[in-house]
Amino acid sequence: MRVTCPHCNAAYKIDDARVTPAGVKVRCPRCHQSFPVRRPDEEGAAVPLPGGAAAAAGVPLPAPAAPPPAAATGIPLPPPPGTGSIPLPPPDPAPGGEDSPFAFGPAPEAPSPFALGPAQEPEPAFTGASGARAPVELPGPAAADDAPLGFGEVDFPEPPAAPPPGATPERFDAGPAPVDDADIVVDEPGEPDPFVAAASEPAFDAAPAGGPAFGGPSGAARAGASEELEMLFGEGARPADAAAGDGYRVRRRSGKVFGPFTEAQIAEMLAKGELLGNEDVSADGATFEALSAVPAFAAELERLAAQEAAHAPPPAAARPPGAQPFGDRMAAAKVVEGEREPLARRLAKPLAAGLAVAAVLAVGLGAGLTGHGWFFTGHLRRGDSKVAVQKLAGARAALARGDHASERSALDLAAQAVAADAGSAEAAALHAMAVAALERRHAAPRPALDQARRAAEALERDDPGSLPALEARLAVALATTPGAGTAAAETALAAALAKARPDPQAFALLGEAALARGDAVKAAAAFQRLGGLEQGPRAPMGLARAALLRGKPEEARSVLEKVAAADAAYLPARLELAALAEAAGDVDGARTQLAPVLADAAQPRLAPLERARARMVEAALLDRSAATAADAEKALLAALEADPRLAAARAALVRQRLRRGDAAGAVAASDPVAAEAASDPALAAARVRALALAGRALDAARLADQALGVAPGTPALLVAKAVALSAAGKPQEAAAAYAEALARDAGAVEPRVALGRLALARGDLPAAREALAQAVEKGPRDPAAHAALGELRAAEGDAAGAEAAFRAALALDAEHAAAVLGLARLAQARGDVAGARAGLVRALALEPRSAEAQLALGTLEWSARDLEKADAALAAAVDLQPRNAAALTRLGAVKLERGDAEAAVKLLGAATSEAPGAADAQLWFGRALLARGETPAALVRLRKAVDLSPGAPEPRLQLGQALERSGALQEAIEAYQAAAAAAPALPDPHERTALLYTANGRCDLALAPLARAIELAPRATRLRVELGECQGRLGKHAEAVRTLRAAQRADPAAAQVLYPLAREVHQAEGVRAALPLYERAVRDDPKNAMPHYFLGYAYKERGQRERAVQAFRAFLALKPDAPERRDIEAEIEDLGGAR
């Protein structure tokens, strides 16, 4: 039977006859661990030997001993055996808490007396006729009443103990299951196994005198003794050893002692070959002598020698199972030893077989690195080449058609060719090229792309440098990473084509790769070669695209028109013609070409990219009118739905929203692709503009730098970066970026327009004139260039030239909002408020989210003193552009004039933060602070406004008022005088100086500035009123009357003249002459309380008591907090008004 060590998995073979019904314990020679072994059909229980077998064996069955107390630890032993079982000696009981003496532990350091020693001492050899070593036949076994057997070959001098109570055979390990033959096996005695002889034999050592224990391999075993499984037969408890006179103990040459055995047993073991005759025996267990020296055994040895010489039995005679009643007791050592077979001979056959297998593997695996396949299986897998050829021909013809439906058919045919002939390199390459053609239209199935990639790798590995391998490699590169990375693959394929038969598919592939890299010259050359090899639209379509790449749209249109004329149903040509017509401004032509492409019946024939591009052209046409701007946005959203991968559609949506002033919406449109925006220059440029106009200048600048790192020097990115810098208040850096963009693209119009506007903003009219003249020259059909030129003409004071430029822009684009806005501003400048308002309303209809139009409309309403409408329009401008400093400033000024100083301070503070160098913002911020009573802070802002605008009088006027309020009268006068010097024709500084003198009782000093102010503004009634009042305070009532009557004649409807005139007439001519003037002042200026005051006294003097009471009461109603209130109430009481 076969067993396996459960500790190290080493496999062994044990003769079934050597496994008793009760089982045996064996020790593994590899790991030196012991384990039980039972017969396979008797696992799990101790089975008693049959009665006949027990009788034949002559095994005495002793009565069981009294069981000792159970040990606290140790290996559980089976219960006392019944009839026919071989008892195992129980272990001595161990103290509580100590390890059992039967526990498997590390090998003892001292060599065990039971270990087999090294074969240093030669054993007697019994040879047969052939000279080989043969077993010695000894006499048969003794009677059945011989001394009981010990524990295998191990004998313990102490009395054995009974097994612990409750121990059952099931508590033994079930033993290893049978396995295949292993290298180390235990054979029956016979011809020695050469492999067993090479191993050392572990000994099952006996414990020292203190008690029996299991040990590891002995010193003799470690020294190189022969190694076999050592069997420890699972015997039950037996009675104490027989006395010395009852048998002999046997000591092997290794030093191990067995027994005691009777003379008949020893003689039988000699006859069976289990003893060699060179052992020692002892009758008393202490003194040993040679076996041959004992007379009882000497005769037997001589008889065996004579018998061997006469018969010479075969050296490897096998014993039948069950024929060795005592063999299991001596199983720890082989009785027959054979010579070891040489190592070379033992390894020759396995080595030869291994070399043969290695050679087959090397050749087969080596073939796998070639086109033959692993173990040349490629030749066994070749399919139907005839079918593959037919499919490939159909695929090539379909690719030549050059549209989505044909390319999809080509992919299917190529896939069928690959399936028909899996080893065809041509089929794999054509399949990859069909995938690349579809992927250019964003229509390649992902599994097909993966298959093409794997096929390209296989071709590159199996047949590098071949034309199919190079084609597949370039096709996969074009489908996955088009651009500069394909240059090396293009060069390799072109070199291979120069030596091979021209392949139309290869030239088409080279042309597409060159277009993807932006090399129009190589692309045109490749498509020219393609046109000479095949008939169809693919070559001319490629040539048209190359012409567009070179900037020659007319040449491209000519080629496309020929293709469309040859096949009116060829949709790709129609789509390209529509795009060209739209770009050229041919709206009707674009719609005509686009109509068949947008038809419902055409949609299944279009690839995702083509459907999306058609929607983009439709959106561009719709976006030309403000009325259809919403439809244009819907068309762009449909384009994104048709092909989410088309970044150009998303960039177009961003630009469309920016044109409508929806910067926040533009940012939202680009948010889904924000992470990869930097890798696409067009998309990055659009998003940078959106971020900048939405007030996220820092994010815009960061994205611009990232995109320029990916595509350095891209003009569109440079312009977008300049827009972001301009929005961030960095005009000089913006101008540098625009200049760099012009250096990269000398024909660009937008950078020139932007540079002209920047120069115009800083007042550099010559620079603006030069830049805008070049812009109009480079872009004569660009309405933005003409509109910017109109702004320049307006700044130069050339209203007629400005109007002409604006109308030229409108001739190119009837709905150009900037031109409409410019005309409205011209109308406002010439005082045509109604015309200006109508123009601004139209500009807002064209571009509802135009912050500039809202700002202009709010400014117009402010100048018209319609503060409510001005507030609404300016608030809308601020909502659209929260960081627009001009809008914040004007809205703050309107809030201040409407009396909301708190809101004005907040808005103007934000304006000064956005534009610290804006003088208007500082000026109005100072005025708002002054209105809120924060005079020191107001002085700081007003002084800064003066510094920012050295030639402007308004900041000095406001500074003078603040100084006047702070008590610095002399500084205030100096500020007014500086304002008058800055604007000699302005009456306001003279008026403010006169008012300062008048307020401080120096009317004599006020007369001259007032007279100068009247000279500068003769129609200003208030100035004459102020002069008349000042003359009256000086006692010059007659002069005052003349002055005031002159003011009345200049403005008869001026009600504010009546009261001061009545006062001066009262002083000069008396109350009778003044009474009509007081009465008229009450009627024409009802909110003025003072005429009622003097009229009450006049009525009192004339005795008109009731009328006097009415006048006094009207005075108190209009001026309830008048300081004269008590006096007036007393007058009313005196006049009887209290009743």
From TrEMBL:
PROSITE patterns: TPR. Residues 1-36 form the Zinc finger/thioredoxin putative domain. The chain crosses the membrane at residues 351-376. Coiled coil: none annotated. The keyword Transmembrane applies. It holds the Pfam family Zn_ribbon_4. SMART domains: TPR. Residues 45-60, 139-150 have a biased composition (Low complexity). TPR repeats lie at residues 851-884, 1089-1122. Residues 61-94, 157-167 have a biased composition (Pro residues). Residues 36-177 are annotated as: Disordered. Keywords: Membrane, Repeat, TPR repeat, Transmembrane, Transmembrane helix. This is Zinc finger/thioredoxin putative. The lineage of its organism: Bacteria, Pseudomonadati, Myxococcota, Myxococcia, Myxococcales.
